[in-house]
């Protein structure tokens, strides 16, 4: 009887160990999927930020070019009145953003 009890308890221990290993594997799978998803989302967010930065840099260059054009137009006082009025309003609009500094 002693030998039979040892076999029963060792098979229970094996069963518990198998269940424990399965739980650990499932937990590791969930953790690595979460880690992959987090990294993947961060990469997408970074790509979006880079694209937005490129767009904003282009917009800043275009705005500075327009500021330069308007400053030249106003300093020479030549051109159409509509251009002068537009440039005056445009330069007034850009002053709070400190875009006039080159």
Q: Which terms would index this structure?
A:
102 residues; mainly alpha
Order of helices and strands: HH
Helix content: over 70%
Sheet with the most strands? none
Structural class by sheet pairing and helices: mainly alpha
Any idea how many domains?
A: 1
Low-confidence stretches: none
Report the sheet-strand fraction. under 5%
Q: Give the end-to-end Cα distance, rounded to a whole number of Å.
A: 94 Å
Question: What is the mean predicted local confidence, pLDDT?
Answer: 87
The rounded Rg comes to 35 Å
Task: Please give the count of helices.
Answer: 2
Q: What general form does the structure show?
A: rod-shaped
Based on DSSP secondary structure assignment, what is the total number of beta strands?
Answer: 0
Describe, in plain words, how this protein is organized in 3D.
The protein is an all-alpha fold. The chain has one domain (2-97). It has helices spanning 2-76, 81-94. Helix 1 (2-76) packs across helix 2 (81-94). The N and C termini lie far apart (94 Å).
Question: Nutshell version of this structure?
Answer:
This protein has 102 residues and is mainly alpha-helical. The protein has one domain.
């Amino acid at each position: 009887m002693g030998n039979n009890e040892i076999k029963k308890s060792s098979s229970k221990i094996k069963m518990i160990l198998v269940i424990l290993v399965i739980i650990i594997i499932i937990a590791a799978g969930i953790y690595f999927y979460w880690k992959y998803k987090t990294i993947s989302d961060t990469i997408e967010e970074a790509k979006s930020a880079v694209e937005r930065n490129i767009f904003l840099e282009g917009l800043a260059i275009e705005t500075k070019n327009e500021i330069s054009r308007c400053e030249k137009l106003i300093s020479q006082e030549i051109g159409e009145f509509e251009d002068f009025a537009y440039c005056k309003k445009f330069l007034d609009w850009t002053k709070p953003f400190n875009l006039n500094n080159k």
